[in-house]
Amino acid sequence: MAVLKVKFTKTRRDKLAQVLWILNWISVVTGVLLFCLGLFLKVEINKREELMAGRDVQYVPNMLIAVGLLACAINFLGGKICYDCVDTNKFLRWKLIILPYIICTFFFTFCVLVGAVMCYSMHGELEEALNVGLSDALKFYKDTDTPGRCFLKRTVDMLQIHFQCCGNSGYKDWFQIQWISNRYLDMSQKEVVDRLRSNVEGKYLMDGVPFSCCNVNSPRPCIQQQINNNSAHFNYEHQTEELNLWMRGCRQALLEYYTHIMQSIGLTVLILSVLTGVRYLQTALENVLRQGDPDSESDGWLLENSLMETARTNLNIIKSLVGRTTPVNHKAPPTPSSEER
Amino acid sequence: MVVMKMRFPFEKRVKLAQGLWILSWCATIAGATTFTLGCILKTELRRRAEVMDNSDIHIVPNTLIIVGLASLAINYFASKICQDALDAGRFPRWKNFLKPYFAVSCFFTVLMLLAVIMSYAMKGSLESSLKIGLRNGIRFYKDTDTPGRCFQKQNIDRMQMEFQCCGNNDFRDWFEVQWISNRYLNFNCKEVKDRIKSNVDGRYLVDGVPFSCCNPSSPRPCLQHQLTNNSAHYNYDYQAEELNIYLRGCREALVNYFMGLMNTISAGVLSIFLLQGSVLVSLRFLQTAMEALDGNENSEIETEGYLLEKGVKETVMEYLDPVLKFFLLKNQVQEGMAEEGASTASPP
């Protein structure tokens, strides 16, 4: 029993071919868009690679680039097929190609869907990479004279200014690390020595943040030092103060930014509708060829038999192919026994 | 004396009309580009309106917008004329329209060139406007609770971060204004009282700058307060320190930005001016070549085309005469009415 059978008149077949031709070209543009999106995502991830621990995130943009290029090729070919399908005679030259084309496109569409799912499932991985990466970046913020870390302070400052965020989870992250280099600390000063001695690791910790954490929307000049000390500043209460510093952590800000880019990939599902249409067009035109009259009405379907039967048929085809390719083991002639000798 | 006379066989006329049709559509797109560039420049200037004292500089984008729109109309008609020039029967209907059309077109094309010249000439005006505007912006930085100035602090901070600049001329401008509101000053504190009493105006002046002056490229955490006091900070010499805060003033940064923008736009508009000029010159040749066919049954004969029928001076006077006569007549009518009024008012 055919699955999702639809009747097609000559006019409807031509309409379907035309619509599919347009859809294929839209999908080519979508492919280009995907490719560009992949490149953009790759560039953006590379731009912030100093703030990411693992490099596992790269597979998403790489897949998008590959899928984009494939989409262009597949849909360009699909466009040619649909264009020729208006003419029954021209359809004959595509008759052999169309089924493998549909199978390839099916696998490709499946890959696209997997890619789209990966974009959402990658959220956790990205968060973990950012968490570790940002923690390290904050830790090495002060090391402006260490080779390989010279520009880390600038990168973190620019990140906090650009994404309007502070610290990893929040501004309090800066209180747990020494972000002022010993080079700029006067070790002869009692206050500095006391602060260094006050913790096991001998770090200079304070309730202050870099200038890049300052919120431009604040009506008062930015308070960066002694943030937790209300008495150190006039008319100030750190529990209720919401505009002095950026409250959002940079992990959350970056995560939202990358997630937003990756959610734009929902466009790819458009290719599925093209695939379904091409299958209808193929079956409808094959039935026309069987009938012999190009203007006659014909049936089109997604699957000729039920889902189970189609699966069984395909398995049998694969088995027969495998059976044909494996070499036949001819039995070796029996070795004569000692008695026969 | 005829200026720039040329011979036009039939094929050459057709080629000219076809080429000019394409050229006029290119010029239409160029007109739209001019309009867009004007809009971009106007938007950018309006974004910084709060740090500008006057809006004299807006004459440049306004001119570009007007010229762009005029260019769209001029070139649309040029393309229609070219289309009709291919048919000798349809061309005469444009005869009366072409003289005023050329006058208007030349006016707007010259205006386009003026816009380019003005964008260079207005540098002084832009600079003085920014000087006063920025000075006021810095002066009102603290007034975050004054209606109309609530966002002044935010705008200045964003500007200093975006343009990587500090103050009007440089960071020292912040030392001459009170940029911390009295609302956040503790008047019970002796240090605050002393500082306020130390100057005639009773202002709280400090050798400090807002956080937006901080340079992210500095290897050390930003020093914002007591900038001129070397002993207040370890391993610090303010005369030699170049990376702690931005050293460039915002006036210089903004002038460079706007002049860069206007120079880029001017280069584009200048090339559009040349395109527009070539459309008008070609159209003039086509018009004169087609007018020579008047009363001729054979439309495929060779004709002569020229740029000006008389010399430049005579042509200018020919166009100016009706305008001058119109104003002269208007003045005479007004004088006559005034005399009549005087005679009726005086007793016999």
UniProtKB/TrEMBL annotation, chain A:
<comment type="similarity">
    <text>Belongs to the PRPH2/ROM1 family.</text>
</comment>
<dbReference type="InterPro" id="IPR042026">
    <property type="entry name" value="Peripherin_LEL"/>
</dbReference>
<feature type="transmembrane region" description="Helical">
    <location>
        <begin position="98"/>
        <end position="123"/>
    </location>
</feature>
<dbReference type="Pfam" id="PF00335">
    <property type="entry name" value="Tetraspanin"/>
</dbReference>
<keyword id="KW-0472">Membrane</keyword>
<feature type="transmembrane region" description="Helical">
    <location>
        <begin position="21"/>
        <end position="43"/>
    </location>
</feature>
<dbReference type="InterPro" id="IPR008952">
    <property type="entry name" value="Tetraspanin_EC2_sf"/>
</dbReference>
<keyword id="KW-1133">Transmembrane helix</keyword>
<dbReference type="GO" id="GO:0007601">
    <property type="term" value="P:visual perception"/>
</dbReference>
<dbReference type="InterPro" id="IPR000830">
    <property type="entry name" value="Peripherin/rom-1"/>
</dbReference>
<dbReference type="InterPro" id="IPR018499">
    <property type="entry name" value="Tetraspanin/Peripherin"/>
</dbReference>
<protein>
    <submittedName>
        <fullName>Photoreceptor outer segment membrane glycoprotein 2-like</fullName>
    </submittedName>
</protein>
<dbReference type="GO" id="GO:0005886">
    <property type="term" value="C:plasma membrane"/>
</dbReference>
<keyword id="KW-0812">Transmembrane</keyword>
<feature type="transmembrane region" description="Helical">
    <location>
        <begin position="63"/>
        <end position="86"/>
    </location>
</feature>
TrEMBL record, chain B:
<dbReference type="GO" id="GO:0007601">
    <property type="term" value="P:visual perception"/>
</dbReference>
<dbReference type="InterPro" id="IPR018498">
    <property type="entry name" value="Peripherin/rom-1_CS"/>
</dbReference>
<keyword id="KW-1133">Transmembrane helix</keyword>
<feature type="transmembrane region" description="Helical">
    <location>
        <begin position="62"/>
        <end position="81"/>
    </location>
</feature>
<dbReference type="Pfam" id="PF00335">
    <property type="entry name" value="Tetraspanin"/>
</dbReference>
<feature type="transmembrane region" description="Helical">
    <location>
        <begin position="20"/>
        <end position="41"/>
    </location>
</feature>
<dbReference type="InterPro" id="IPR008952">
    <property type="entry name" value="Tetraspanin_EC2_sf"/>
</dbReference>
<feature type="transmembrane region" description="Helical">
    <location>
        <begin position="101"/>
        <end position="121"/>
    </location>
</feature>
<dbReference type="GO" id="GO:0005886">
    <property type="term" value="C:plasma membrane"/>
</dbReference>
<dbReference type="InterPro" id="IPR000830">
    <property type="entry name" value="Peripherin/rom-1"/>
</dbReference>
<feature type="transmembrane region" description="Helical">
    <location>
        <begin position="254"/>
        <end position="275"/>
    </location>
</feature>
<comment type="similarity">
    <text>Belongs to the PRPH2/ROM1 family.</text>
</comment>
<keyword id="KW-0472">Membrane</keyword>
<keyword id="KW-0812">Transmembrane</keyword>
<protein>
    <submittedName>
        <fullName>Peripherin-2-like</fullName>
    </submittedName>
</protein>
<dbReference type="InterPro" id="IPR042026">
    <property type="entry name" value="Peripherin_LEL"/>
</dbReference>
<dbReference type="InterPro" id="IPR018499">
    <property type="entry name" value="Tetraspanin/Peripherin"/>
</dbReference>
